[in-house]
Amino acid sequence: MDLGIGGKRAIVCAASRGLGRGCAEALAAVGVELVINARSAPALEETAAAIRARHGVAVTAVAADITTPEGRAAVLAACAEPDILVNNAGGPPPGIWSDWSRDDFIRALDANLLAPIAMMQAVLPAMTERGWGRVVNITSAAVRAPIPALGLSNTARTGLTGFVAGTSRQVAARGVTINNLLPGIHATDRAEALDRGVAEAEGIDIGEARRRREATIPVRRYGTAEEFGATCAFLCSVHAGYIVGQNILLDGGATNITI
């Protein structure tokens, strides 16, 4: 299927590895030019070089902390008027309700609520003026079924979901769609960190921790960054103009809900 977005420009945040990289790779594969962002310059440059070599598209790497005004300014200086924006940031640390201070919540809100909102506020005016645009926010399955150990993420990402619900309906008539992708467990550094935490807490090896988690997923495996990226690319395509304000689960059936 021709996604119809070859030659368009995209900003993909937190794209040096994991789900962000999966999205960047999938967009590059259909001819989208990229500005990719992450905090670690070496890892980001390595990813940019690999994507250029594999897909033959222009890739600009901007090493910056997207959760800060300075970081966002640096990314937007490289691509002030993208056609596509993929918002992404690492999740806050797990714990229980008594672990977190006000500062912990502020950091979580900055990364997973306020930063993506600021990026949308920066790029939506030009998108609506041109009459076309795509925004995909990578959030979490926890916004549909909160996970007790991820209270910081539950709080921040659910707030973003509410913002998108209203904003997406306000810009849809101008050819701009905003949707959220809600990953369950994927084979990324984040999953490995969570499995390591379980292994340490229960005195088991990390392989056993992963096998136990896989057993709770109907497809009996973790997702891949490649299949996640493919879904993102479709939401950014010309074929997805009637998908507005949705929260799309990619979790192998692990979230047992009806709506």
Order of helices and strands: EHEHEHEHEHEHHHE
Rounded mean pLDDT is 95
List segments where confidence is low: pLDDT < 50 over at least 5 consecutive residues.
Answer: none
The shape, in one word, is: globular
SS strand fraction:
5-15%
* Main beta sheet: 7 strands, parallel
Number of helices, where a helix is a run of at least 4 consecutive DSSP H or I residues: 8
Write the layout of secondary structure elements.
Elements: E1 9-12, H1 18-29, E2 33-38, H2 41-55, E3 59-63, H3 69-78, E4 84-87, H4 102-130, E5 133-138, H5 151-171, E6 176-183, H6 189-202, H7 206-214, H8 225-235, E7 247-250
Helix pairs in contact: 1-2, 1-8, 4-5, 6-7
Comma- or semicolon-separated keywords:
single chain; 259 residues; alpha/beta; seven-stranded parallel beta sheet; globular
